[in-house]
UniProtKB/TrEMBL annotation:
It is found in: Endoplasmic reticulum membrane. Binds to the short form of prolactin receptor. This is 3-keto-steroid reductase/17-beta-hydroxysteroid dehydrogenase 7. It is a single-pass membrane protein. One of its GO terms (molecular function) is 3-beta-hydroxysteroid 3-dehydrogenase (NADP+) activity. Belongs to the short-chain dehydrogenases/reductases (SDR) family. ERG27 subfamily. The lineage of its organism: Eukaryota, Metazoa, Chordata, Craniata, Vertebrata.
Length: 331
C-alpha cells in the first residue's frame, strides 16, 4: 500500500520544498497538498508533477485558520484515504511584522549577537488580527487549526498495528517568555508568533504522552532562517537584496542560516526517514547548514522549565497556575 503524506501550507516555501524532497526520495507516496488557495495549490501540483511526472499528487482545500474549513477538510481526508502515515503541520503566518531597528543595532554590538540572528529574540513583534471565528489569527492558524485537524484525524492516525507521524514546523523564535497559560491566544502581548510556536512545542509533547501507545508520534522541527514569502514580508524587498551577501557571510558563523527552502526542509525530510519510536519526544529537531553548505539535523532538548510546565499542566493544572504566578518573569 502506498504511504499517504499530507502537508499543510504546501504551495510555497518550506512546505513546497519538502514535497519536492519527499517525491525525489520516494515516487510511490500519495502526496496531499492541503492549501487554502486552490490556484496556488494547483500551480504547486503542476510544478511537482513537472519534476516527478509519475507521482500521485492530490489537492485538499484547507484554511487551517477556520474551524469550519478544518472540519470539512478532515471529513474529506477520511473519505479519501484509509491510512495517513505522515501529517506535516507546516502552514504558518506572521502578520504585520515589526522589526525594532534600535534593538537590532544594540544587539549587533552585544555578546548576544549570534542568538539574536538565530532567534530574533527582542527585535521582532507582530500585530495580530481577530479571525472570522473570533479567535486571534496567529494562534488559530499556527496552532489551533492544526491541533483540531489532528484530533479530527485521530481515527486514521491511531489505527491498530500502524505507525503515524505528526510533524510540526515550529521555530527558533518560539519562546517561553512569550507564552502564558492564562492567555494562550496571546491577546495581551506583541509576540503572537513566538507564543504560537512555543505552544506547538508543548502540544507536540502532550500528543506523545496521549497517543504514543496508539502508534501516533509527534515531533517538532525548527527550519532555521529561510528566505520565503514569510521572511520577505519582514523587510522591504530592496533591503533584502542589499543585505543578501551579508546573510551568506553570517552563515559562516551560525549554522541556523539555512536560507533556502530546500535546506530549511532538512529536518522535516530527515524525520520521515526515522523510526518514530527512536525519536526523543522532548527534543526539537533543527535543520542546520554549515558554512560549506552541508545540511544536517540536530536534536535540541526542550528546556527543563518547559518540561516542568508540560508535566505540571498535564497532571496538576492548579499547581501549574501557581508556578506561573510565583515565578517572576514568566507572565
Ligand atoms: N521562513 C523562516 O525563516 C521560518 C519559517 N518557519 C515556519 O515555516 C512554516 C512555513 O513557512 P514559510 O515556508 O517560511 O513561509 P511561506 O509563507 O512561504 O509558507 C507558508 C504557507 O502556509 C500557508 N498558509 C498560511 N496561512 C494558511 C491558512 N490559514 N490555511 C492554509 N494554509 C495557510 C501559506 O499559504 P498561502 O500561499 O495561501 O499564503 C503558505 O503555503 C511556517 O509555519 C513558519 O512559521 C519557522 C521558522 C523560520
Ligand atoms: C543584516 C541582517 C542579516 C539583517 C536581518 C535582520 C532581521 C530581519 C533577521 C535577523 C534574525 C531573523 C530571524 C527571522 C526573521 C528575520 C530576522 C529577524 C525569523 C523570526 C523568521 C521566522 C522564524 O520563525 C524565525 C526566524 C529567526 C531569525
Amino acid at each position: 500500500m502506498r504511504k499517504v503524506v499530507l502537508v499543510t501550507g504546501a504551495n510555497s516555501g518550506i512546505g513546497l520544498a519538502l514535497c519536492e524532497r519527499l517525491l525525489a526520495h520516494d515516487g510511490q507516496i500519495q502526496l496531499c497538498l492541503a492549501c487554502r488557495n486552490m490556484q496556488r495549490a494547483e500551480a504547486a501540483r503542476l510544478a511537482l508533477l513537472a519534476s516527478h511526472p509519475e507521482s500521485q499528487v492530490a489537492l485538499l482545500q484547507l484554511d487551517v485558520g477556520s474551524v469550519r474549513s478544518v472540519f470539512q477538510a478532515a471529513k474529506e481526508v477520511k473519505l479519501r484515504y484509509n491510512r495517513l502515515d505522515y501529517i506535516y503541520l507546516n502552514a504558518g503566518i506572521m502578520p504585520n511584522p515589526q522589526l525594532d531597528i534600535k534593538a537590532f543595532f544594540k544587539g549587533l554590538f552585544s555578546s548576544n549577537v549570534i542568538n539574536m540572528f538565530a532567534t530574533a529574540e527582542g527585535i521582532l513583534t507582530q500585530k495580530d488580527n481577530i479571525n472570522s471565528d473570533g479567535m486571534q489569527e496567529v494562534f488559530a492558524t499556527n496552532l489551533f487549526g492544526h491541533y483540531l485537524l489532528v484530533r479530527e484525524l485521530e481515527p486514521l492516525l491511531c489505527q491498530p498495528d500502524s505507525i503515524s507521524q505528526v510533524i510540526w514546523t515550529s521555530s527558533s523564535n518560539a519562546r517561553r517568555s512569550a507564552f502564558s497559560l492564562e492567555d494562550i491566544q496571546h491577546q495581551q502581548g506583541t509576540e503572537p508568533y513566538s507564543s504560537s510556536k512555543y505552544a506547538s512545542d508543548l502540544v507536540s509533547v502532550a500528543l506523545n504522552r496521549r497517543h504514543n501507545h496508539q502508534g501516533l508520534y509527534s515531533s517538532v522541527i525548527c527550519p532555521g532562517l529561510v528566505m520565503t514569502n514569510m521572511t520577505y514580508g519582514i523587510l522591504p524587498s530592496f533591503f533584502w537584496s542589499l543585505i543578501m551577501p551579508i546573510m551568506w557571510l553570517i552563515r559562516i558563523f551560525t549554522n541556523t542560516f539555512t536560507l533556502t527552502p530546500y535546506n530549511g526542509a532538512e529536518a522535516l525530510f530527515w524525520l520521515s526517514l526515522q523510526k518514530p519510536e527512536s525519536l526523543d519526544p522532548l527534543a526539537k529537531y533543527h535543520s542546520l547548514t554549515s558554512g560549506l553548505g552541508k545540511n544536517y539535523t540536530q536534536p535540541h532538548k526542550v528546556s527543563e522549565e518547559t518540561q516542568y510546565l508540560i508535566s505540571s499542566s498535564l497532571t496538576q493544572p492548579q499547581q501549574k497556575r501557581n508556578y506561573i504566578k510565583l515565578t517572576p518573569g514568566l507572565q
